[in-house]
Amino acid sequence: MTYLTDSAIDAQALVRRVMRNSDGAYVLFEGVVRDHHEGKPVARLDYEAYRELADKEMRRILEQLMREHEGTRIAAVHRVGELAIGDVAVIVAVSSPHRDAAFTVCREAIDRIKATAPIWKREWAPDGSALWINLETDERK
User: Fold this and answer.
1) pLDDT digit string (tens) for 82-96?
2) Which domains are present in the chain?
3) Is 129 helix (H, G, I), strand (E, B) or coil?
4) Distance of CA 30 to the CA centre of its chain
5) What is the Cα–Cα distance from 11 to 65, expressed in whole angstroms?
6) Which of 15, 36, 75, 132 is surrounded by the fewest CB atoms within 10 Å?
């Protein structure tokens, strides 16, 4: 299960979607908007996505990981739109019969999503300047 949303994400609903009676562990990753990046203050973030392609890529990643790690189940949701400091931007939930696989797959899932899903982050400074992360050179002081 994967999707993009403009609304807050219910982490426990994702856990309920992946957990089975045969699972002995679940790992939940929540990526949260912080107030700094590379030593510079951040006031908020805007996330934009090519929704159709992002949904497809996230689904491909999760399906591939479940094939690579038999017995795991994964759900991932990413927010789009304007997010404030402290808002949850992305959640990945992984269940497995054993904890080691749950930890491993959760880490792989978020790393792959960040690397390949067409979701872009615009970082806003307190002075109103903005920068597309990983797309522009930061010339802010």
Assistant:
1) 999 999 999 999 999
2) 2-132 (3.90.1170.40)
3) coil
4) 7
5) 20
6) 36
